[in-house]
Amino acid sequence: MDSFEFNKIAMSVLGVVFIVMSLNFLSESLFHTERPETMGYAVEVAEASGAAEPEEDTGPAFDPITPLLASADIGAGEKAIKKCSACHTFEQGGANKVGPALWDIVNRDIASIDGFGYSSALTEYGADKTWTYESLNGFLWKPKTYIKGTSMGFAGIKKAEDRADIVAYLRSLSATPAPLPAE
Question: CA-based angle 64:65:70, to the nearest 5?
Fold first, then answer.
C-alpha cells in the first residue's frame, strides 16, 4: 500500500467523523431541551375540603338486567352459551366438567354441587347465598372482578342484553323455572 492509498483511507475516516460530529451539533441546536431542576413528573392532587366520609363500597359497576329479563331472547341466550359448553353441561343430571353443571342454577345455592371442587373464594362468597338473577349477571359480567379469587377463567360478557339473554336461557333450564323478578 502506498502513501497515497493510506491518505485516501485516513481522509475518509476523518471525513465521516467530521460529518457525524457536525450532525450531532446541528441536531443539539435544533432540538435542545433544558434539564429540569427536579427529575420526574409533578402530580397535582386537589385538596380535600374537610374530613370526607369514606364512600360505601357498592361493588363493581355493571348494568342491571332485571328490566331486560321480561323481553330477553331465550334462543339468543342458547346460542351465546355454546361457548360455555366447553366447561359446563346444561342437561338435567349432566356431569360436571371443568366447571359445574348449570341445570337449574337460578335460585340454587352458590357452590352447592356435591363432588365439585369449587375455589375457596367462591365457596366463601357463596356461604348462605343463592344464584339470583343479579348475582348471575355480575358473575357473567366479569367473574374475576365480581368474585375476587375465583378460578373461573372467563373474561366476561360486556353487553347487558347478552347477559340477560343468557340468564333467561339458564332460567329455562329447570323443571320449575324461577319466577321473573318484579321490576
Answer: 145
Q: Which residues of 144-161 are buried (b: 16+ CB within 10 A; e: fewer)?
A: bebbeebebeeebbeebe
Q: Which amino acid is at 75?
A: G
**What pLDDT score was predicted for residue 149?**
87
Angle at Cα 63 formed by Cα 117 and Cα 91, nearest 5°?
A: 40
Residue 168 CB partners (closer than 8 Å, separation 6+): 69, 72, 73, 74, 77
Domains and CATH numbers, the chain: 66-172 (1.10.760.10)
Q: What Å distances lie between residue 49 and 42, 67, 73, 139, CA to CA? A: 21, 39, 49, 37
CA distances from 109 to 76, 102, 132 (A): 26, 12, 9
pLDDT at 97 over 70: yes
State pLDDT tens for residues 42-77: 777 776 555 444 444 445 677 888 888 888 999 999
On the CB side of 146, CA atoms within 13 Å amount to 22
Q: Is the pLDDT confidence value at 111 over 80?
A: yes
Q: Tally the residues of the chain.
A: 183
This prediction has a pTM of 0.65
Cβ(146)–Cβ(138) below 8 Å:
yes
